[in-house]
């Protein structure tokens, strides 16, 4: 991460088209810092990069020498956009990424539907995944399944639009996955736009101090 990254990102935020909040970016960065303190650092992935607004934050989470895999249908494959959610632009994405990363050798772009990705080829050393692709139950379920296979133990998965009533398929797909494979990804962290899950955590991200025994008195 370059010096002054956060300030530059905040200043550029209004000029980049996307459906992301700066608060969510701060949440990504903070939670990633917490798992990195536990020795969890690796590749990162985003499904649905659009113009790069959230991808800038996700790319900054990649460990030194590791990959950022960016997945989108982009302009040329919108006929495969099953749920008509978003319309990424490759030129805008690359232009915005170039503003924040001097060395872009870590970037791997997959132009296509995420259901064409192969978990075995991607590997299982991803410490952070962000799902913001297709919003149907089937697409969300498939993306959850993919990410559950590539996340390292203790890695984080952030899901977009879980609480958005305009896209009920997102929560439906996530709930279906959790009911069928509830030992794989554990829900736990959230804000108003994102729901975060952790892959078989080794230990909790946050340990809250225990409360002193109650005396029955209010002070």
List the topology elements:
Layout: H1 5-12, H2 22-36, E1 43-47, H3 53-60, E2 68-72, H4 90-100, E3 107-111, H5 119-122, E4 126-131, H6 137-150, E5 151-160, H7 168-180, E6 185-190, E7 194-199
Parallel strand pairs: 1-2, 1-4, 2-3, 4-5
Antiparallel strand pairs: 5-7, 6-7
What is shown here, in short?
This protein has 219 residues and is an alpha/beta fold.
Verbal overview:
With 219 residues, the protein is an alpha/beta fold. It has a single domain, classed as Vaccinia Virus protein VP39 (Rossmann fold). The chain is built from 7 helices and 7 strands. The protein has a 7-stranded mixed sheet, with helices on both faces. The longest helix has 15 residues. The protein starts with a helix and ends in a 20-residue tail after the last strand.
Q: What is the H-and-E element order?
A: HHEHEHEHEHEHEE
The count of β-strands is 7
Strand content: 15-25%
Shape: globular
Average predicted confidence as pLDDT: 86
Q: What is the CA-CA span between the terminal residues?
A: 46 Å
According to CATH, what is the topology? Rossmann fold
Low-pLDDT residue spans? 207-219
Rg computed from alpha carbons, rounded to a whole number of angstroms: 18 Å
Biggest sheet record? 7 strands, mixed
Q: Could you name the key traits of this structure?
A:
Rossmann fold, 20% strand, alpha/beta, 7 helices, single chain, seven-stranded mixed β-sheet
């Amino acid at each position: 991460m370059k010096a002054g990254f956060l300030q530059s990102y905040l200043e550029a935020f209004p000029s980049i088209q996307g459906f992301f909040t700066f608060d969510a970016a701060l949440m990504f960065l903070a939670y990633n810092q917490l798992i990195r303190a536990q020795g969890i650092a690796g590749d990162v992935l985003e499904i649905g990069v659009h113009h790069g607004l959230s991808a800038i934050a996700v790319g900054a989470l990649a460990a030194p020498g590791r990959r950022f895999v960016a997945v989108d249908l982009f302009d040329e494959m919108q006929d495969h956009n099953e749920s008509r959610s978003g319309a990424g632009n490759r030129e805008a994405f690359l232009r915005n990424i170039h503003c924040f990363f001097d060395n872009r050798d870590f970037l791997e772009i997959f132009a296509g539907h995420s259901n064409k990705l192969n978990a075995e080829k991607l590997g299982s050393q991803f410490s952070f995944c962000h799902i913001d692709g297709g919003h149907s139950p089937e697409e969300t379920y498939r993306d959850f399944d993919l990410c559950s296979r590539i996340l390292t133990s203790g890695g984080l998965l952030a899901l977009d639009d879980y609480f958005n009533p305009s896209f009920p398929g997102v929560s439906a797909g996530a709930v279906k996955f959790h009911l069928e494979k509830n030992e794989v990804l554990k829900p736990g962290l959230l804000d108003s736009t994102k729901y975060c899950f952790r892959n078989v955590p080794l230990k909790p991200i946050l340990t809250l101090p225990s409360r002193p025994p109650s005396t029955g008195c209010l002070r």
